[in-house]
């Protein structure tokens, strides 16, 4: 039977079990929104306040559920508004399919109203992108896009559909997802060479070499990166750390890859890494990094990073090997599979002495008791005490993000939703919405700063409209805290344009959006507010007042030696 | 690691989908990673859907390997081979238009062209146009000599290269095998 391009798109989403879409309509995507009405109840569309919010929500949905997120936008400004969200997903390897419509074929290339070369704009921030100009190729393209988004190292894929394609009709035949590789463009991709067709097994010799290296090591150390989270390999990683009996540091993206309460965890590593992590990294003789890309926030100075150690890199993306740090050995493969193979061959090791040395250094920063005022650690521990153990924590970007990652203990992949690679301020609220939609049974909280929150607080309208009960904690210090911290330490206290002594009153803002809020100055009020927020069953803003000179501790300057802690 | 420190001319050959936008995607990758393309040649292959591209780039060896790895990650790219100078044959076609107003000059140019095994492919009363194929050294040799007569215009195709012996761009290595792991779709 012939159906319209817009309906083919809906059917293809259903094939992928992509029943949740975040988006914003507009001129060129009208046919798709027209078809949405027909698919009501099967495809749930969430109308956000801005395309950027939709992009972050689809990303948050993907990160928290492990499924592919979907976002819709119209052409021109709709597509360019998505871009920050697309780049955020790209840097953190989050599988999202972004679908936008462009002007009709007869208007393409004429600088028509709301026309932009969207595939050109998306080129450097997607795994792959497509423009669909023929309705007969639409289904095939959507199937290919989803497969690419979730395959290998996941990431965003962008599809640009011309408006006339969404109106034209074509034959559509339902094909179950498992059979997609048997036809069309995916078949070509599989057939292209022999190896693609038979997915190569992890090299057994590489595994043996690593097992031998582990046996020879006296001071081994592990880094748990975002790849462990994407591969949902937490059980395997926990076992791996236990078997090697090695101190394990976590990157920003690796939160939840190993249980936060695992006794081997030394906390975060890198610029705001704990003393235990950074010192262990400098002293170890074998460093095994799983699913991490040694970014400049981890391997601050690549030349001296883990200088006494043999570095082993386990990653699914071959192009990450030797990119930032020279390695001594590598294994290319899916973290879950590689760790399983390693665990099968490893014998229980014992490194009590080495661990004793590492854990003689602090794994978490100690703050002076604030008394009647709040300090960052108190905020985090009060929250952790009063919310469910498996609460999903979304963050924005800045000091509150580092405090959240330092002081909450994440237990499973998808529990921490944060923009680690791109560092997108304004990411949090959208992402929290996506996470809650994907996990209706779990509590979702957002930790944010007054600077980050102001960027995209328009999504409070989405929170209110769909009754999405997110508890929002604003770490309100009246400044762009992280930038102020750098100005304080590196720019001789020249606080240029970072003080945020301005509107709005966040409690009144919550009320304006039909939500509740409360401003708190101490632990007791914070506790009461959390109980109130839980009882309200709606979105709730808790505006936590913090000192503007509070800093994220410890800190190592960019490009410095990893144990070169600043005196703060 | 300074990218241009110890950089030499490297030749990369690749097979890519013959589709709109693929060339710009590949060219963007070089600029995004901070490299300038020194020479670029693209043309059809025995398979109508596949284009072969040869790119010359200034880079040191570790960075060339990284570039190959990044290229292999692009979906339209089927295979990439970093060609070894000793095991590969390089050819380029150059057309040079030289000013030659007198018969004496014309005779000199024709004699020199013969030594280089260049062909005279066009002639007018004021100019001679030579065509030459060869590697980069031969090209620059001819250019240097023809400068004496006055070069009016040069058109070069950019280098194409192929490996000696039975080795081909489709040969599998451990590295390309590791790549396909990441490309596992579904």
Structural notes for this entry:
With 568 residues, chain A is an alpha/beta fold. Chain A has three domains: 2-197, Thiamin diphosphate (ThDP)-binding fold, Pyr/PP domains (Rossmann fold, 3-Layer(aba) Sandwich); 204-358, TPP-binding domain (Rossmann fold, 3-Layer(aba) Sandwich); 376-545, Thiamin diphosphate (ThDP)-binding fold, Pyr/PP domains (Rossmann fold, 3-Layer(aba) Sandwich), CATH 3.40.50.970. Chain A has 23 helices and 20 strands. In chain A, the strands form four sheets. Chain A has a six-stranded parallel beta sheet, sandwiched between helices. A six-stranded parallel beta sheet of chain A has the order 11-10-9-12-13-14, with helices on both faces. A six-stranded parallel beta sheet of chain A has the order 16-15-17-18-20-19, with helices on both faces. The longest helix of chain A is centred in the N-terminal third of the chain and has 15 residues, at 51-65. Chain B is an alpha+beta fold. Chain B is built from five helices and nine strands. In chain B, strands 5, 6, 7, 8 and 9 form a five-stranded antiparallel beta sheet that branches. In chain B, strand 6 and strand 7 (127-134) form a beta hairpin.
Topology:
The complex is a heterodimer of chains A (568) and B (186).
Chain A: E1 2-4, H1 5-15, E2 20-23, H2 30-38, E3 44-47, H3 51-65, E4 69-73, H4 77-91, E5 96-102, H5 118-122, E6 128-132, H6 138-150, E7 157-162, H7 163-167, E8 169-171, H8 184-191, H9 194-197, H10 204-216, E9 220-224, H11 226-230, H12 234-244, E10 248-250, E11 265-268, H13 275-283, E12 286-290, E13 310-315, E14 329-332, H14 335-345, H15 352-358, H16 376-386, E15 392-395, H17 399-407, E16 416-417, H18 428-438, E17 444-449, H19 450-456, H20 460-465, E18 470-476, H21 481-489, H22 506-512, E19 516-520, H23 523-536, E20 540-545
Parallel strand pairs in A: 2-3, 2-4, 4-5, 5-7, 6-7, 9-10, 9-12, 10-11, 12-13, 13-14, 15-16, 15-17, 17-18, 18-20, 19-20
Antiparallel strand pairs in A: 1-8
Chain B: E1 8-17, H1 22-32, E2 37-44, E3 50-59, H2 61-73, E4 77-83, E5 88-99, H3 103-115, E6 119-123, E7 127-134, H4 136-146, E8 151-156, E9 160-163, H5 174-182
Antiparallel strand pairs in B: 1-3, 1-4, 2-3, 5-7, 5-8, 5-9, 6-7
């Amino acid at each position: 039977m012939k159906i319209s391009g817009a309906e083919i798109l809906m059917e293809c989403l259903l094939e992928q079990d992509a029943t949740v879409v975040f988006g914003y309509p507009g001129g060129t995507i009208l046919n798709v929104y027209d078809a949405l009405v027909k698919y009501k109840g099967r495809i749930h569309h969430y109308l956000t306040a801005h395309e950027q919010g939709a992009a972050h929500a689809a990303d948050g949905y993907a990160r928290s559920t492990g499924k592919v997120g979907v976002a819709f936008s119209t052409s021109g400004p709709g597509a360019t508004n998505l871009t920050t969200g697309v780049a955020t997903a790209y840097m953190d390897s989050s599988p999202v399919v972004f679908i936008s419509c462009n002007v009709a074929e007869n208007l393409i290339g004429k600088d028509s109203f709301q026309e932009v070369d969207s595939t050109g704009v998306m080129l450097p921030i997607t795994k792959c992108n497509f423009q669909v100009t023929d309705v007969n190729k639409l289904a095939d393209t959507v199937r290919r896009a989803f497969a690419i988004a979730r395959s290998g190292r996941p990431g965003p894929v962008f599809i640009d559909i011309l408006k006339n394609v969404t109106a034209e009709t074509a034959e559509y035949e339902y094909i179950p997802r498992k059979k997609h590789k048997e036809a069309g463009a995916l078949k070509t991709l599989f057939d292209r060479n022999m190896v693609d067709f038979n997915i190569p097994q992890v090299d057994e010799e590489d595994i043996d070499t690593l097992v031998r290296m582990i046996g020879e090591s006296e001071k081994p150390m592990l880094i748990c990166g975002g790849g462990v989270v994407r591969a949902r390999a937490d059980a395997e990683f926990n076992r791996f750390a236990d078997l090697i009996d090695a101190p394990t540091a976590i990157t920003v993206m690796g939160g939840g890859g190993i249980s936060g309460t695992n006794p081997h965890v030394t906390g975060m590593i890198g610029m705001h890494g704990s003393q235990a992590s950074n010192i262990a990294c400098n002293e170890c003789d074998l460093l095994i990094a799983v699913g991490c890309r040694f970014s400049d926030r981890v391997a601050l100075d690549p030349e001296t990073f883990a200088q006494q150690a043999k570095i082993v890199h386990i990653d699914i993306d071959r192009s990450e090997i030797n990119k930032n740090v020279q390695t001594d050995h590598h294994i290319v493969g899916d973290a879950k599979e590689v760790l399983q193979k390693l665990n099968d061959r490893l014998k229980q090791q014992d490194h009590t002495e080495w661990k004793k040395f590492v854990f003689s250094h602090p794994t978490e920063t100690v703050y002076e008791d604030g008394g009647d005022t709040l300090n960052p650690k108190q905020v985090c521990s009060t929250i952790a005490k009063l919310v469910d153990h498996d609460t999903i924590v979304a963050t924005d970007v800045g000091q509150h993000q580092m405090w959240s990652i330092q002081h909450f203990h994440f237990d499973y992949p998808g529990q921490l939703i944060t923009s680690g690679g791109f560092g997108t301020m304004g990411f949090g609220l959208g992402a929290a919405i996506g996470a809650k939609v994907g996990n209706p049974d779990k509590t979702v909280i957002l930790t944010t700063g007054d600077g980050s929150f102001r960027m995209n607080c328009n999504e409070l309208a989405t929170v209110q409209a769909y009754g999405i009960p997110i508890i929002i904690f604003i770490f309100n210090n009246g400044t762009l805290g992280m930038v102020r911290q750098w100005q304080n330490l590196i720019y001789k206290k020249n606080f240029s344009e970072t003080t945020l002594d301005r509107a709005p009153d966040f409690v009144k803002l919550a009320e304006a959006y039909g939500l509740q809020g409360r401003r708190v100055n101490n632990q007791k009020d914070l506790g009461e507010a959390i109980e109130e927020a839980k009882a309200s069953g709606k979105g709730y803003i808790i505006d936590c007042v913090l000192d503007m000179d509070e800093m994220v501790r410890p800190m190592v300057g960019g490009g410095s030696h990893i144990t070169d802690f600043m005196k703060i | 690691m300074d990218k241009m420190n110890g950089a030499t001319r490297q030749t990369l050959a690749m097979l890519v989908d013959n589709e709109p936008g693929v060339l710009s995607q590949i060219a963007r990758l070089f600029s995004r990673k901070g490299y300038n393309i020194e020479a670029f040649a693209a043309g059809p292959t025995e398979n109508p859907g596949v284009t072969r591209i040869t790119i010359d780039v200034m880079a040191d060896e570790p960075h060339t390997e990284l570039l190959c790895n990044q290229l292999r990650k692009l979906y339209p790219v089927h295979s990439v081979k970093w060609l070894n100078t000793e095991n590969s044959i390089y050819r380029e076609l150059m057309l040079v238009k030289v000013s030659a107003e007198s018969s004496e000059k014309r005779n000199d140019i024709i004699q020199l062209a013969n030594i280089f095994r260049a062909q005279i492919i066009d002639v007018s009363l004021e100019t001679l146009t030579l065509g030459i194929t060869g590697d980069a050294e031969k090209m620059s040799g001819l250019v240097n000599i023809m400068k004496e007569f006055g070069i009016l215009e040069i058109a070069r195709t950019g280098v194409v290269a192929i490996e000696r012996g039975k080795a081909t761009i489709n040969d599998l290595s451990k590295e390309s095998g590791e790549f396909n792991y990441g490309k596992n779709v579904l």
